[in-house]
Amino acid sequence: MADIFRFDELTWPEVAALPRETPLLLPLGSQPDPETLPAILKTTQPAGLLPAIPFGWVGSGLEVREQVFIVLVQNLVGNLLEDGFTSIHVLTPAGLDLGPGIPSIVLPRQATGPLTVPADREKVIILPIGHTEQHGYHAPLSTDTLIIEAIGRGTAQAVPEQAACLPVFPYGVSTHRRSFPGTFNVGGRTFEDFWLAVVDTLVEGGFTRFYLMSGHGGNSSFLVNVVKYAGEKHPHIFCATAFLYLSGPQGVAALEARRQSRLGGMGHACELETSLILHLRPALIHLERAVDETNFITTPNYYMDWIEGGALTANPPWEDDTRTGAYGAGSLGRGEKGEYWLKVAIEEKVEHVGEIHKQYRRRHERRMRGDTKTTR
What SS3 class is residue 296? Predict the structure, then answer.
């Protein structure tokens, strides 16, 4: 029987060491039962199971325009081809045709049915968006996804009458994709098109309040654009995003209260992210491999820390500042700090959910009074 391993639980050096003929499987929907895959693949060699795409195609329960979804899948497959992998298969439900350019295997049945959107249209819909990318020598590719999934779910569980959380989406934007194996990039414009289409579909279903909750810094500027497009297209809704998590006054105070690193110690695969994964999935962290990288080229208006600082925005090559892919002091990660920071991150997001409701209600009331030109 073939050994089925989770691709996103690897570190990037482990991905770099994989034989390029290793079969890689990209599921649509829920993760399939690993025991059924060897017979479907007709192979006994190890195969890697990538994070599943939870929705987007016709029949998924939350569909977008067909071409938008196909381009997103094409870009993910293209990332793997560019990295030299030669055996890539998208695992699809029966009846779905992604076109001739995408190698597909039809699964005999899905482990779960289509996504069920919440029945209560008055809730804030939380859309947690992570990513699959390198996190240094010591942390898994799934770091951003695991963290924002925990924050999104924790927020909805804390205020179930106010919010509902959809499944985490595990792919985003990394413009440094080619620098470190295992890093994906769906492309900025494709990312924007996809998430605007998701909001479109939910608005058509009667939802009016949205929180695009990102766990990956590379998504942030593109999500700002999505929010702007959505607000222009649907002026009666309230759609918001924020810079990652622990970025408001309460979050910043919590970071300062427990951090051990100096400025530059929190950025990527750093003290913060390592601590959070040590709390959530400690077996995935190899702390003995952590290499602290704090030699970011810093000037008064451009530097790296958790809340990126300075007046300048830029995108220089990552290789200028890191050999291992990390920005920060991962060796200082501790599970107890991660437990505390996760708690505060959820509290921060709960506050945001309350504000989204307040913004929507107050604006709706003002329109109903006729105080604005937007009356829909």
Answer: coil
